[in-house]
Automatic annotation (TrEMBL):
<comment type="similarity">
    <text>Belongs to the fungal hydrophobin family.</text>
</comment>
<keyword id="KW-0732">Signal</keyword>
<feature type="signal peptide">
    <location>
        <begin position="1"/>
        <end position="19"/>
    </location>
</feature>
<dbReference type="GO" id="GO:0005199">
    <property type="term" value="F:structural constituent of cell wall"/>
</dbReference>
<keyword id="KW-0964">Secreted</keyword>
<dbReference type="InterPro" id="IPR001338">
    <property type="entry name" value="Class_I_Hydrophobin"/>
</dbReference>
<dbReference type="GO" id="GO:0009277">
    <property type="term" value="C:fungal-type cell wall"/>
</dbReference>
<keyword id="KW-1015">Disulfide bond</keyword>
<comment type="subunit">
    <text>Self-assembles to form functional amyloid fibrils called rodlets. Self-assembly into fibrillar rodlets occurs spontaneously at hydrophobic:hydrophilic interfaces and the rodlets further associate laterally to form amphipathic monolayers.</text>
</comment>
<keyword id="KW-0134">Cell wall</keyword>
<dbReference type="Pfam" id="PF01185">
    <property type="entry name" value="Hydrophobin"/>
</dbReference>
<protein>
    <recommendedName>
        <fullName>Hydrophobin</fullName>
    </recommendedName>
</protein>
Amino acid sequence: MFSKLSIAVASVLITLAAAIPNSPPPPVTPPSSPQCCNSVVSSTSAAASGVAALLGLDLTGLNVPVGLSCSPITVVGNNCGSTTVTCDAPEQEWGGLIAINCLPITA
């Protein structure tokens, strides 16, 4: 029973992976969007690649800091308990899962 289930799950995952089109890398523009991110990693890291793959993003060729699990900072004096950065303002939002070209905000 377990082997049939694992084969079915693997088949579904392969089908989903094939159905999700890979988009070109997101454009890298000067950071202009203040964000509070749980972590900031290199775009070449396994963590960034994994999240990007789930979203159908291709980070190949990019070597910029990437914020993971981010939310916009909209209020002055917002108490970000994580990493405060300025990232690209994306044309397309990715549900706060990833932000591109994140640089630390220094006061």
